[in-house]
Design brief:
The chain is mainly beta. The chain has two helices and seven strands.
Length: about 120
């Protein structure tokens, strides 16, 4: 894994992690701190996905795909939230100085949100 690049914009410190992915292509995804996620209404399920190979059958129905652009490269993340505005807020705060949000799409996932992550208890 490559060393993280740190960019300072006014009072924000934005960290971009470099990840090796398909065929040695390096993709950048936004790194959210624990504090960012605690103050938001979002859960980042997966970052830097390939939308054509995306399988949503195990995800909750409140999953969204957010597509954003940083430095001419497009990225897609899977985020869980009740409202698209919550997703927009956390991503806009992170990437507005270096990129842009292209789209936020809903309608993904096949699992009822209250049952997502539920494991049945087996009685012996």
């Amino acid at each position: 894994m490559s060393q993280p690049l740190v960019h300072v914009f006014s009072s924000w410190i934005l960290t971009i992690i470099l990840n090796k992915t398909f065929d040695g292509i390096i993709l950048m995804t936004v790194n959210f701190t624990i504090e960012d996620l605690k103050t938001s209404e979002c859960t980042i399920l997966e970052q830097g996905i390939n939308p054509t190979e995306f399988k949503d059958n195990q995800l909750p129905t409140d999953s969204h795909l957010i597509e954003y652009m940083i430095g001419g490269d497009s990225f897609v993340d899977v985020v869980r939230a009740h409202k698209k505005a919550d997703i927009f807020d956390i991503y806009y705060d992170k990437i507005s100085a270096i990129g842009k949000i292209i789209s936020i799409k809903a309608g993904f996932g096949r699992v009822k949100p209250s049952l997502y992550g539920y494991t049945a208890r087996l009685d012996s």
